[in-house]
C-alpha cells in the first residue's frame, strides 16, 4: 500500500508547499514594507490636529436639573420593562411589590409582599427620586442581597421612568 516512493512524494509535496508559503511571505513583506525595524511602529499616515481652539466645556447638570428635564410620557413607555414584575394600576403584587405611590413610600412598606431580607430589615428609609435613581442603576449597590437584579443603565430612560413614577405619586 505505502511504499518508499509514495512516502517520499508526500513529504516532498509538504516541503514544497512550505517553501512556496515562506517565499510568498518574504515577497509580501518586501513589497509592503513601510520602514522601521521589525516590530517597530511606524506611522504611515499622520492626521494633523488643530490645537489652537480650546475644546468646548462640558456643562455638568445637577440631578435636580436633569430630573426636571425628564419626560413622563417617555417614562410611561419605559414602564413596559417593569410591567413584567410590578403593577401600578392596582394594589396587587407580582414578582415584585406594587409601585402605587412608590415615591415617598418607606422602603419595604408594602404589607402583603414578602420582601427579601435585604429590604425587609430596612427601617426609616424612604424611596426618594434620588434613591430610586441609584436603585435602578444597580439595586445590589443600594441594598446588597436584594432579589431584584434588573438594571436600567441609560440615564435618560431612567430619569424618564422616574418622572413617570413620580407623576403617579402626586
TrEMBL record:
GO terms for molecular function: electron transfer activity; heme binding; metal ion binding. It comes from the Bacteria. Residues 70-169 form the Cytochrome c domain. The keyword Electron transport applies. The keyword Transit peptide does not apply. PANTHER family: CYTOCHROME C (PTHR11961). This is Cytochrome c. It comes from Marivita hallyeonensis.
Amino acid at each position: 500500500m505505502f511504499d518508499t516512493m509514495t512516502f517520499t512524494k508526500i513529504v516532498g509535496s509538504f516541503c514544497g508547499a512550505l517553501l512556496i508559503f515562506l517565499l510568498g511571505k518574504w515577497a509580501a513583506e518586501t513589497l509592503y514594507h513601510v520602514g522601521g525595524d521589525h516590530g517597530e511602529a511606524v506611522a504611515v499616515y499622520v492626521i494633523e490636529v488643530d490645537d489652537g481652539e480650546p475644546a468646548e466645556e462640558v456643562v455638568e447638570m445637577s440631578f435636580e436639573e436633569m430630573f426636571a428635564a425628564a419626560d413622563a410620557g417617555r417614562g410611561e413607555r419605559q414602564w413596559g420593562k417593569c410591567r413584567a414584575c410590578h403593577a401600578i394600576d392596582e394594589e396587587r403584587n407580582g414578582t415584585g411589590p406594587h409601585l402605587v405611590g412608590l415615591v415617598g413610600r418607606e422602603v419595604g412598606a408594602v404589607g402583603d409582599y414578602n420582601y427579601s431580607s435585604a429590604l425587609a430589615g430596612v427601617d426609616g428609609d424612604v424611596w426618594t427620586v434620588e434613591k430610586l435613581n441609584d436603585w435602578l442603576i444597580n439595586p445590589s449597590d443600594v441594598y446588597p442581597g436584594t432579589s431584584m437584579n434588573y438594571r436600567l443603565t441609560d440615564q435618560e430612560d431612567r430619569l424618564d421612568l422616574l418622572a413617570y413614577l413620580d407623576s403617579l405619586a402626586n
